Amino acid sequence: MHVFINILVFLHLAALVFGMGAGIALIRLGPYYGQVGEEARAKLFILGRTFGKTANISLVVLWVSGILAVWLKYGGVGGLSGWFWAKMVLVVILSGSIGMGSAAYRKFVAGDMGASARAAMAGRINLVAGMGVILCAVFAFA
Ligand code: HEM
């Protein structure tokens, strides 16, 4: 069981690296959509969809590995502090914002130019909420 729990924590941290990396890449991609021609923009959309998929899969891995770690390593939420609950509130905000950002990005790819501002706003919320989650996680578990 000890090795399994360590693998869960490894997966949790690996998903954090992939998720934040993909999120930052998406933010950095944003300004280029308006600066390039049709052909290059189509390639940016392919990159954007790949990073978006990476972020979404990472979020699922974070939820699954996190819930399993709470259950198997800490025996449930009973002994966890307020920092854990603060983390959970931010995780829910982050998850909602990732969902809204993905929906806006799909609309942007389909030609809805107004959706690009919503996708960019979601990206900024993701970054702030994600950093808050990490801060709370360190105080909750370190
Ligand atoms: C979705 C975004 C999430 C991020 C960015 C994140 C981030 C982190 C980080 C950075 C740590 C390491 C803290 C440390 O050891 O000092 C951690 C640990 C942990 N997280 Fe998350 N987490 C997320 C979601 C979740 C969820 C949804 C749960 C559970 C419902 C969860 C449960 C845990 C647990 C139990 C640990 C402690 C692992 C250990 O004992 O080493 N996390 N998280």
Summarize this, please?
By secondary structure, the protein is mainly alpha-helical.
Distinct bound molecules: protoporphyrin IX containing FE
The number of helical elements comes to 4
Shape: elongated
- Low-confidence segments, given as residue ranges, are none
Helix residue percentage: over 70%
The tally of domains stands at 1
* First and last CA, distance: 21 Å
Mean pLDDT: 97
Rounded radius of gyration (Å): 17 Å
> What percentage of the residues does DSSP assign to strands (E)?
under 5%
Biggest sheet, in brief?
none
| H-E string | HHHH
Features:
142 residues; mainly alpha; 85% helix; binds protoporphyrin IX containing FE
Structure description:
The chain is mainly alpha-helical and 142 residues long. It has one domain. It contains four helices and no strands. The longest helix is centred in the middle third of the chain and has 37 residues, at 38-74. The model has no long low-confidence stretch (mean pLDDT 97). The chain binds protoporphyrin IX containing FE. Protoporphyrin IX containing FE binds at residues 9, 12, 16, 59, 62-63, 66-67, 69-70, 73-74, 91, 94, 130, 133-134, 137-138, 141-142.
